[in-house]
Structures are given as C-alpha cells and as structure tokens.
Design brief:
single chain, Neuraminidase, 2 domains, 4-stranded antiparallel sheet, 3 helices, 25 strands
Length: 360
C-alpha cells in the first residue's frame, strides 16, 4: 500500500497513525479517512481513500451496470455495464464491504443497460434486457434472468416485453409484482409491464409518461406509489416531468421545484432509514454531469446540502442496503465526454455522502 509522501510532516504522521490503526483493525477505514481529512479538506479525504483502496480487488469503472442489493443473501450484486467502448459481462458481489469477483457457471452475455431489481415475492434478483453494443449500437435483448446466489439462470416466460436497454424496474409491494417501464430498443418506449414471478403481462394504463429511457423510477412504500422523474428521448430531449404509479395507472404530478434537465437514470433509490426517495446527479444537456442530491417530500422536490458529495456523474447506479440501512452509489461517468469512470463506491447516511471503504 502506497500513500503519497507529498504531505506536511504533521499530516504525514497523522496518516501513518491512522493507517496503523486500520491495519490493526482498531479503526474503520471511513472513520480514519474522515479524521485524516479534518485538517486538510475534502480533496485530501478522497486522495487518501484512493490510496487505501489501491491494492483491493474491485470492479472496473463503468456506466449503465446492473446493481442491486439482495436482502436475503445480504450482499450487493453487480453485473455488466460498459466503459467508453467495451461492453462488460462480469459478475461481482459486495459482501462485508469487500468486492468479490465471481465466475458463475452460467451468466447472461455481456450487456449494458440491463435492469435489475429484487423481487420480494420470489426472493430473487430479476434481470431484464440490456444491449450487447455500447450506447445506441443495437444488440437489444428481452431475456429474463434470475440470480440464485451462486449462478445466473435464464427464464423462458410465455410473454416478454420487446427487446430494450435502459428501462427501469421497481418492485411494487402493494401489488406484489415487478413493474417495468420504458427504455430504448431502436425507438423510445412508453409501455408498462408487470412480472408475476412466472411471466410478463402488458398493462394498459389510462395515462402514461411519454416514451423515454434513463428515467429515475423508485418505489415509495410509505405512499405505496412509485415516483418517476425525467429521462431522455430524441423527440423531447431531457425531461423534467414527475409521475407517480399507483398500481393501476400513471398520474402526472406538478411539483413546485425539480432537479432540472438531467437524466438521473438509476442514480435514484428509496432510503428506508429516512423514508425518502433520493436522486443524485445525472447527465446534463451540456458540460459535466451534476452532483446535486434531491429528495421527494411527497409533493415536491427539495435539494439537500450535504457536507460532502461524490463527484458529479451520470450513468451510475444506486441501491439501498437494508442491513446497514444506507444507500450506496457505484460507477457512472464523471465528464461530458463519458470517458472517465470512477471505481469508487459511496454511501449516504441520511445527511451526507462518504466514500464507502471497508465498513458499510
């Protein structure tokens, strides 16, 4: 493990003491990093954090990966995604705050933009769709897979949505079904489907959001509704509308404020600890991605002001760990050219963001 020697004498002594504490198991890494940054600012905190992780196995940086928490197994599962030009097909789990690369006997082919959600009715992670080529290159899939805990297993339902990537899925606890909306499969889509554990069913709500992909869709168990925000299509550009799904149809909401013209995508989740829907960052019309943190209070969007935030990003994924009661954010791109992909994992504690090192 190498830490830069270009620090002041007092800071250097502090870092050495903190590193010794970590090695001896006396201090969780994130507490040590926070302590080391107390006198030198956020930039130092992130620099030391990167140094601490230099020798640890972890997934390559990527965007549009499938990432979800399995409360039955108490671990995160990460699959696929893409770098600037390469579509990935690796499977990782994050258990006890450490990443582990798995080599399952069976797995989906390499793909980006596959949707992944925990189906509480079947107690399995459900994966749908994706594309075998970067961006809008094609190779769209409508395959349905489940994660068993040791391997992937493809299902063959009687009916399926058309092939697509960048759709969104939530588990509707009120109806005990998985709901899928939108995505891109050569054209932008606005169809709504439900998964009952055996097959897919096309729903026909009386009202619906316009065709789009990369929307944020999060289920709010407090209101028993899903909240949808924004997205993108060539016809409309980046969208700023908010919708709710009540189990039967979509309702167009008109909040007083909103996160603006950003494609938040999967950088959104429900924080059960604070009972809030949260959004982070998102891809913008021009310039680097945003790094704003927003919550839905039931009637409008409210921007939060955390003491520390991850670098702005789009194309990342966020999910809630019901064991540690924290939100986790992984991956995405941090520049307008979509060529920089951080490998860091961040967690939200209800008030601010912290790099997630060894301890959840």
């Amino acid at each position: 493990m190498i830490v830069s020697s270009r620090v002041s004498k007092s800071a250097g002594v502090g870092v050495l003491v903190l590193l010794a504490s970590i090695v001896m198991g006396l201090l969780p890494v994130q507490l040590a990093v926070a302590a080391s940054a107390a006198g030198s600012g956020v930039a130092s905190q992130q620099a030391v954090y990167q140094g601490l992780l230099a020798g640890e196995p972890r997934p390559a940086g990527r965007q549009n990966a499938a990432f979800a928490y399995d409360p039955r197994l108490r671990e995160f599962v990460l699959f696929g995604g893409q770098s600037a030009t390469t579509v990935l097909g690796d499977t990782w789990i994050r258990r006890h705050a450490s990443w582990i690369r798995l080599h399952p006997a069976r797995a989906p082919s390499a793909r980006t933009g596959a949707a992944l959600v925990y189906d509480r009715a079947t107690r399995q992670l459900l994966l749908f769709g994706g594309s075998s080529k970067p961006a809008f290159g094609g190779g769209f899939s409508n395959q349905t897979w489940i994660w068993t805990g040791t391997t992937w297993r493809q299902l063959h339902p009687a009916a399926s949505p058309r092939p697509r990537h960048a759709a969104d899925m939530i588990y509707d606890a009120a109806t005990h079904e998985v709901i899928l909306f939108g995505g891109f499969g050569g054209v932008y889509l606005d169809d709504t489907w439900s998964w009952n554990g055996t097959t897919w069913h096309r729903l026909h709500p009386s009202n619906s959001p316009s065709p789009r992909d990369t929307e944020a869709l999060v289920y709010d168990p407090a209101s028993k509704m899903a909240i949808l925000y924004g997205g993108f299509s060539l016809a409309t550009g980046r969208l700023t509308d908010t919708w709710s799904w009540n189990g039967r149809t979509w309702l167009h909401l008109r909040p007083a404020t909103s996160p603006g013209r950003v494609s938040v995508g999967w950088q959104a989740a429900f924080d059960a600890a604070s009972r809030q829907v949260l959004l982070f960052g998102g891809d913008t019309d021009s310039g680097p991605p945003g790094n704003g943190t927003w919550k839905w209070n039931g009637s409008t969007w409210v921007q939060l002001d955390p003491a520390l935030s991850p670098p702005g990003r789009g194309g990342g994924t966020m999910t809630y760990d019901s064991t540690s009661k924290r939100l986790y954010l992984f991956g995405g791109f941090t520049n307008a050219a979509m060529t920089k992909f951080p490998r860091t994992t961040w967690r939200w504690n209800g008030k601010t963001w912290h790099p997630a090192a060894r301890q959840p």
